[in-house]
Every structure is written in C-alpha cells, then in structure tokens.
Amino acid sequence: MKIFRLTLTLLFMVGNYFFVFAQSNKLDNLNNITLTGQVRPLGDLSPIENALVINTDNKLNFVKTNKNGIFSITVPKETKGILIRAENYQDLQIPIENSQLKLSSPYLLEPSAEYGGTGIIRARRKDEVSQNTFQQEEMAHVAGTGGDAVRALQTLPSVLPANVGSADVVVRGGSPGDNSFYYDDLLLPFIFHFGGTETIIPTRMIESMDFYPGAFSAYYTDTIGGVIQLRSFNSIPKRFSGEIEVGLIQSGIFLEGNAFGSSIEKEIDKEKNSQETHIIKNENEKNGQTNQSNNNENSDDAIGYRIGFRRTYLELYKPLIAKLANNTSFVTIPQATDYQMILNGNHSRGTWQIYLLGANDSASLSAPIGNSTTASGQNSFSFENYMETAGFKYNLNLGNGLGFRVSFQQRYYLLNQSIFGNNINIESQLYSFSFILDKKINELFSYSLGVRPKYQHYEAGLNVIQLPGGGMTTSFDSELAPVVQDKVVVDSFYGDAFVDIIFKPINKLTINPGLNMIVGSHSSEFAIDPRIGVRYEFIEGQTLKAGGGYYSQYPQPQYNAPRYGNPNLELERSIQYAIGYESKFWDDYFIDIQSWIKSSDNLVGPAVSNPNNKYENSIEMRAKGVEFFLKKKASGIWFGWMSYGISQSEQRDPGSGEWRYSNYDRTHSVNIVYGQKITSRWNAGTRIQFMTGTPYSTVSGGVYNENTGKYSPVSDGNTYLISKNDARIPYFFEVDFRTEYDFLFQDWKLTSYLDILNVFNRSNVANNSYNRDYTKQVYITGLPILPSIGVIAKF
C-alpha cells in the first residue's frame, strides 16, 4: 500500500512538472518571436557565411549565418530591430514592426568602402627562399594590369619584358627561353599572348599564382631561369554563375557551376524550414553560436565545371593606331584568342581534375628595315602560333600522412612564322606523365619523391638562313649566310626524377634540401642537381633566408635538331645563390630585400672548336643584382607597393674572351603601384614603370656591294661571335591608369571600366635596326596611348 501511494505521489509530481514546463514554454513562445532569412551581397547570389545577426536591444543575443547565408534568431517581441554585420561589407540595420522585419529576405549587404585585407602576401608555404604568391582577388585588382594575373608579376624587380610590349619575360638576367610556365602540373610552352597584353589563362581560371625567380627547390626542373606556377581551383562551384565582358579591345565569357549535385537553392529552401534558434542570455557566453543545422558538407557525385573564352580585336583599330603612332616606323597589331574548360570532382579519398586549354595568336607588319626585295622597299613579318593541351590530375590520400599524385598531359603546338623572307613551320606533340609521392613523417620532417617521363614528336619545315649561335651580330651578313631548306623530324624521350625534403630541426628554422636528376635522349643530356634553401625566423615577422644550387635545362629544339643544329649538344647549366631578409611590420607592411648571383655555362652558342657542328655549348653568362620590394597590403582605403632592382648581366664572347652586356641586360627597374577605393562601388589605380634601355650594337655606316647590289654594315676591324652591345636604346617610361565602377542590382552587377595604357603617349622604343644603307636608325616602338572602355556583367 505504501509503495502504491509513493508511486502515485511521484507520478503527480512529474506530471505537475511537465505541466508547469509546458505552460512556461507557451508563455515564452507568446513573448518571443523567431526571425529567419538569408544574407548575401548586393549584386551577387553567393551567400555570406558567418555574418553576425545581432539583437539591437541585447547584443548578447546573436547568431551567425551558416554556409548558405541562412540565420534563425529568437528575440523578445518588444525588440526594435536587428543588425547584420559581415567582414568587408557595410552594416545593415533592419527595424522590427508588428513582430516582423521591415525588409524581406534575402537581406542584401552593400560592399565596404574600405579594403578588408586584400593584398599581395607571401606564399603559404615558406620553404622557398625567393617566392611571391598572388591570390585571385589580389591579381584581379592590381592597378595598371587590367586585372591580368601574370602581368601583375611585371611590377616585381625580378621580372622584366624582353622588349617593350614583348610577350617574353626576362628573370634575373637570363633569356626568355630559360623560364618555365605551369598551370597545376601542365607545362605550357608560353604564358603570354603575343605582345604581352594578357595571360593565355584568364584570372577567373586562376586561384593563386606562385613566382620563383631563382634558387628554387628540386621540385622544378628543366629551367635555369624563373618559374611561374599558376594554380586552378580545387573546389566545386556551389551554384551557376558567370561573367560576360564586352569592351572596345576584347570580349569574353566565363561560366561556372556544378552538375549532378544538389543546388544551393534547394538547400536554402530546406534550411528555411528547419532552422533552430540559439538564444544567448548568459553573460558568461562570450561567443555567438553559428546555425549548424544542415551545415555539414555532404559528399555527392557533383562535378564542377569552369568554361571560358576570350577574343581581342585590336586589328579593327589598325588605321587609328597607325595615325596615333605617326612618329614611328611601324607598330605591331596582335590578335589573340583563348579558351578553357576544366572539370573537377571528389572521390572517397581525394580529388580529380580534367583540363582542356587552347590559345592562338597572330600578328603582321611591314617596315623599311634593311635590304628589302619588295617594290615598296618594305620588309614583312607575319606570325601565328597555336597551342592546345589536354590532361588530367588525380590526387589520392593513402592515410598516415601519405599522399599520391598522378597527372597526364597531351600538348599540341603549331608555329608558322615568316621573318623578312625566312619561313619556319613547326608542329610538335608532347606527352608527359607525373608520379609524385608525398610523405609527412611529423611536423618536423616531410618529403616528396617524383618521376616525370616525357615524349615529344617534333616536325619543322625550314626555309631559313643558318642563324649564328651567338645571335645576329653586326659582322653577320645575311646575304652570305647559307640557306637551309629542309624538313626536320625529331622524336625524343626525356624526363626527370626528384626528391625534395622539408626539415625543421627547431621551430623557427626550416631547411629544404633536394636533388633533381634530369635525363635526355642523348648520353650528353644528364645531370644531378643538388639544391638547398634555409629560412630562419629569428624574431616573429623577421626572417633571414638563403639558398642555392645547380640547375640544368635542355637546349632549344632548333639547336639540337639534325642537319640544322647539333644533336650532340649538352645540357645548359647554371649555379645560383640568393640571400635575403624579409620583415613584416605595422600589420599591413612588408619588406623583402634580396641579393643574388648567377653563373651559367654550357649555353648554346657558335661553333668554335669545329665549324661543322654549327652550334656548340660555347657561351658563359654571369649576372648579379639586388632587389628591394616594399608593399602595403590592401587595408583602409588604399594599397600599393614599390619595387626597385639593380642588376648586371654579361656574356662572354667565345671568340675573343671578352665579357659584354647580354641582349636583355637592364641596369635599373622601378615600379610604383597605387590603388584606392573612392567609394564602396568606385575604385581607381595607377602604375608607373621605369626601366633602363636594353643594349644594342652600333654601326658606323654601310658599304655597297656591287656583286649583290645591297649594303652591308661597315666593320670596325673586330669579329664578334655575340652582339657587341656597346650602346643602349632609350629608357622605358610608362604610366597606366584604370578605374572601375560597379552598378549593383539585386542578383547581379555591372562593372564598367576605363583602362588607359601609356597615358602620356610616350613612344617607348622596343627595338632598333638600320635603314637600307645603314645611315639611319629605325626605331620599333610599342603601342601609343590606348584607352579601353568596357563592361563586365557578373551574375
């Protein structure tokens, strides 16, 4: 009986508790309201994650938006409003009337009138001694480059154009052919369109870019110059979006999205019906809660895609450009097209990507240079090249710190070129594999092992004079040079293997030793190159660094081709050292100072020991320099940087043994970049560049040859196997300007831009030659002032 009474008492107490609790909840529900919605930018459908939604009457009552920009917050009925705050956006305050927000969802945030931390930063991996990294949002806003990725590098002290307007770049005193260009693991034959106007891969296709001017690790091979490493996006786009650009000079389209995956719109609709409210009333709770429901990434079968196409049409303005450039002998009018398609996805233990890239360039001109055989007295030039590459990359996480990467590339390259009567037609096919094993032992030690075999089929139709290995010197007579009419076919197997180690004996010290073994088709093409880099952060933000090693590269195909060249050429070699100091200070400022030295030998040059060889490894090169780079990252209303480089590059004449300036030597280079936000929708920027002119060889006059009826340059009594380079063309100076204004609509925006290249219309000399009788110099100049207006629709 007692047990029965006790049981009834307990049941009554429990029932009474739940009754009181239920009544309390009903009372709370009557006194509170739940507000839900989505937060995203004005003019963009992408959601804003981690935006704060704050009760204006009680700042301890707040939540954060989830990955889809969704929030749900419970507030008292008498609350006057909420405040929405997100980084890089202006605050949005919304009143509450009749228990409802006065504005309807989605809640659109206006961009901030200040920069929120965008700027050029150092690389994520700080094992390399000489390395700069750009992120996509940084590259797109570098003043004076038109938002182009690689052109942003030309504001660094290590990177110079081979000539004004040239698509080739010179890094630390080397030659343009010494550099390597990569898009992920894809090896590109060139990086710029002809004329250097833009990169063959648009910035929207590039997540980040690493630049290594020298003394880099064993991971990179077959180069004694610099390395430009472009990286694609690994993420799958959450929604369909795109850009359409229409301009006076160029138009293009970019689209991205995903297939076979759940759309973000469906996720948002689902979340709006299932959000939970987090009310923060406890004063001890210092951090807001994030809406976590349905916020986990679900692996599915989604395939991301990114597609792009661009086309320039400068050729339509040829009469206008020629009129603007009335003080020059001629200008070049390039035309460029490129296209891209990238697919990517995830698998259970990694990621995969498929690539298709293509680029086409053409240009033509005529000019009164040298001994023309045409009725007009003009010599002609025409140029066309085409590149298409396809490939895939597969990343596999094997667990326990072990990863495996495999990639494949097929590349087709076509070049048709006619230079003053010399015709070259080249077709080549490249097939390459890459197998790389990464192992992380612990936080102090990791390494990578790799093997990268390649096969190339090369065909060339030649109707050209035999060019000297040291270049066309003043003593070279093209009329007496032998003419090669031949078809060259070369099949070659080559590749490399490497080991790259990261070792941290103490927390602040990083040592990066490595070996790269390069193997060619001939026994003479073999080298083992040891390299090492050291970084020591002796005080937080203050780092000393040094590095160096041996570097090798294959000769250019034309030099070791049968009949035209010398198949027995050896690898070109280089020894490089760099030492430097970098400092971060005042939060937003960074300084990098480096001193470097470079010594190269075995470079392809004229045949000295046996003229029948045509080309031999006969040239030596030495270069040295100091680089200074100061930048303020984008914060507040402005960003900018200044770079200065002083260097000297010389080659040794294999005939006389004298050292002479190399063809690409520039003593001084100065770059100043400035960008500013005028309002939240309007920004402007400028770039100022100065460079010492490149060397050239003087000629005192011409001698008429009665047998040929043409003129030859007067000899000064010396024989030069490389260019004499005893004078310089005028210095280069240019100021560029760009401004953009965004028209923001609810779901899309229209960006208008004005780009003005060469604001002061200065005739910068790109190159020089001589007229028919060598009595007058003929200057080849770059483009005159070139304004460009366009709009980009982004959705």
Q: Would you give an account of this structure?
A:
There is one protein chain. This protein is mainly beta and 795 residues long. It has two domains: 128 residues, Sandwich (Immunoglobulin-like); 481 residues, Maltoporin, Chain A (Beta Barrel). It is built from four helices and 46 strands. The strands form eight sheets. It has a 22-stranded antiparallel β-barrel. Strands 7-6-5-2-3-19 form a six-stranded mixed β-sheet, with no helix packed on it. About 5% of the residues have low confidence.
Q: What is the topology?
A:
Elements: H1 2-31, E1 32-41, E2 52-55, E3 58-64, E4 70-76, E5 81-85, E6 92-97, E7 100-101, E8 107-109, E9 115-116, E10 132-135, H2 136-139, E11 159-161, E12 169-171, E13 180-183, E14 186-188, E15 208-212, E16 227-231, E17 241-247, E18 250-259, H3 264-272, E19 289-290, E20 303-312, H4 318-324, E21 335-347, E22 350-367, E23 379-399, E24 402-419, E25 422-442, E26 445-465, E27 483-506, E28 509-519, E29 526-539, E30 542-553, E31 572-585, E32 589-606, E33 615-636, E34 638-652, E35 659-661, E36 668-677, E37 682-691, E38 695-696, E39 702-705, E40 710-713, E41 727-728, E42 732-744, E43 749-757, E44 765-770, E45 777-781, E46 786-794
Parallel strand pairs: 1-8, 3-19, 13-16
Antiparallel strand pairs: 1-4, 2-3, 2-5, 5-6, 6-7, 9-33, 10-15, 11-12, 13-14, 15-16, 17-18, 17-46, 18-20, 20-21, 21-22, 22-23, 23-24, 24-25, 25-26, 26-27, 27-28, 28-29, 29-30, 30-31, 31-32, 32-33, 33-34, 34-35, 34-36, 36-37, 37-42, 38-41, 39-40, 42-43, 43-46, 44-45
